Amino acid sequence: MHTSRLLLRSGLTLAAAAALPAGFAGPSAAASGISVSTTGSTVSVVTSACTQINGSWGTAALLSSRQASFAQGRQVALSGTSVSQSAAWSGVSPGTFTVVVVCSSGGTAGSQSVIVSGSTSPTISATSTARPSRGVMGGLGGAARDYGPLTLGVGAALVGAGVVATGWVLRRRSKPYRL
Fold first, then answer.
1. pTM reported for the whole predicted model
2. 60, 76 in Cβ contact below 8 A?
3. Residue 17 has pLDDT above 50, yes or no
């Protein structure tokens, strides 16, 4: 009976400990980059990688296969909020295009190829490259955002609690059974 209560408490503690980091982590690093979609002859791009500088989020460009630079493409200013920025092009002829997003800070949020078929069914290309604006931060697991000392402190406390709990369980298991 004692073992089953201990297992129940341990299971609830592990479930709570597993749920906490997800709540404090905030948006994931996978959210950086761009997402491009097509509907008919309309191409749209969404990103959350840009920050507003002097009232501008940045610019997105739609490049055809004959265009080699950002300046040659059809450029549209990004609009949106601090959570999500977007741009769209309508009346795009069928073909293969590359969408490039450059933030107002000068960094590239990413580029992605897309095929416009002219039909009403959405088509998304599988090739995508996301480039973090500050590069890969190797010591933090490749995260492109800094979540601050509170999040890091909570994470360290959870890891410390896990180490202490593991030591306690191993110590208890090494004692001989008593009646």
1. 0.49
2. yes
3. no
